[in-house]
Amino acid sequence: MKELQTIHGETFLVDDEDYEKAKQHKWTMTLLNGIPNVITNNKSHYKPWKNNILYKELILELESECLLFKNDNPLDLRRENIIIFDSKGERARFRNSLYSETIGSKVNLSEVMQDSAKKSSNVNYLGVNYLPDIPLPWLVTLSRNKMSKYVGCFSTAEHAAIIYDKKVLETGLDAKRNFPDLTAEELTEKLKKVKCPKKKTKKSNYIGVYLNNAVLSNARKWIACIIYEKQQRYISSFYTEEEAARAYDINAIEVYGENVKRNFPDLTLEELMKIDNIKAEDRISFFDRIAKCSPKKSSKTLKTSKYTGVYPCQGKKAWMSVISYQDKQSHLGYYDIEEDAARAYDKRALELYGEEAKLNFPLSNYNYTKELKTTCGKTILYDEEDYEKAKQYRWSLRTSNGRGHVVTSFYDREKQGVNSISYKKLILGIESKWTLYKNENPLDLRRENIMIFETQGECNTVLNQIYGNATGLRIGQLRSRAIAGFNINQSIAAQRRIDKRRNPKTNYFGITYVPHLARTWQATITHDRKYYSLGTFTKDEYAALAYDQKALEIYGPNAKRNFPDLTMEELTRKLAKIKPQEAMFSSENLSKKLQGVPSRKEKTSQYVGVCFNRRTSSKKKWIGYIQCQNKIYRLGHFYTEEEAARTYDAMALKLYGETAKLNFPKE
Predict the structure, then answer these.
(1) Cα torsion at 177, 182, 184, 189 (round to 10°)?
(2) Rounded CA gap, 165 and 587, in Å?
(3) Into how many domains does the chain fold?
(4) What is the rounded distance in angstroms from the CA atom of residue 344 to the CA atom of residue 308?
(5) Is the domain of 149 the same as that of 247?
(6) Contact 406, 442 (CB under 8 A)
(7) Are 82 and 184 in a shared domain?
(8) Each residue of 199-226: pLDDT tens digit?
(9) Does 409 lie in the same domain as 390?
(10) Where is pLDDT greater, at 552 or 202?
């Protein structure tokens, strides 16, 4: 046994053989469902989709989440301290039997086993331990890789020993047995002859009080019930037996009167309520509680259907048809006749689920053709000999390099992740990447519709021969327009019409066409190697006038313009005549730049380690920062950039000394 520490100083115990492997990782402790767990960052090839991985998964290679620690210490990760369960129910039942009122709230199971083995001389069987003070005291565990696998708890030692031998034979372990001469069948016959004592249950001495063994010791385990109208009615649950008995008496007096047989006949109703601090105005009577719990009886009989997916409804039409697909319900319509609604359900079920659909009528009643569909509902055309193999997979339509592909996904154990494979490769056995469809439909996967090429050049040559180079479309565009059965010739004509609308010709410069804007012509100008927008306009002539006006303002009369004969006054007069809905000017940032005033977006500092914070509404808009060991540290917010610069200088002197680059070296 050796100790390891987490990065925060917590100590946990490991086995000697696991120490060398475990010390290669940095461990930390976290709480999962309130239980401490030791985890590390997942840098191994084991479960690569997980960011963090538990110690028990990486080092002990345990897949089960249902564990129990013998000494009740989750930081003792030795193999001998762990019991493995098949389900959470097994673990809960075993834990509830241990955490009983006689043992206590916490149990050191390893110490209990050692003490019971010393005290009890009857434990002569392998794999059997005696746990005192619980209903089923004989515990059976199966040892594997120094860890204990929980098998069960039993009432007698012989019963537990037979179960242990049967489990050894089932798992095929090379381990010693209690009855080595008996086979599995003989052990089963011997198990039938074993007499198991009846489970002793604690009963109450009071009338109408029962013990609930399914709850823990610190819960309300005493239940009070009363018989009313030949039925046992639940009253409530209590911590003590006496409280439940008094509750029974209060309700019995209310139902049957004071002459009824009670637990405390000497006490009246007022005295019983006074003991439990119950006020008469706050208490709900027994009959009111029964009235709330009993279901309301309806005079109308509810109508039901014998067909799947058919439900009754109120209205002119008596039946409606509904089907569920991919966790969503679809309404199929209303019908006068029940059978019509059932047939509508069957037809839709055949479209969605195929032959495996649960139908109301035989399949022979419908003209059903076998279909394969993608996850988005598109139909796949296939050869008849491929149907039986293809229907076993779930297909989807994907786009790659401008091409449509029908693919299915699977888990790749070598790459430890999800991978996909195409229908052509999996079903048709086509290894080549370069294929074309004769009818331009990637969902038509019949062999006669597929052309196979060895190289990309051969594939492109055939495409150019079919569609020609004058279409103005690239090979990738042709393929992308063929996805899901679109006709390429129609898409070429549509593309030509779009291109004509998208790029109208203009004789002006300094303007561009932007089709997605309401005013599609935009005027721009370059100054100090930066582009500035002058506004957007409905006509190219308006944009050209705006360009000329700004060019004259920046570069003077020698500037290249669209209207060289017009002066600045004439340009200003023409722009003023443009209606507001036909133009939107945006020259604010540019005018500030020309005046020497930086805009808000372009505001910077002349000092080292100072920047302008344009997002804050505070008056402290200057931030001081310094870089040390490849990390940036913020020094604070300041009213002026000089104040931030001096703060930077003070911190730089502390970190770098005389070699620091300062904003005010003379100071």
Answers:
(1) -120
(2) 91
(3) 6
(4) 11
(5) no
(6) yes
(7) yes
(8) 555 578 898 888 876 555 556 778 889 9
(9) yes
(10) 552
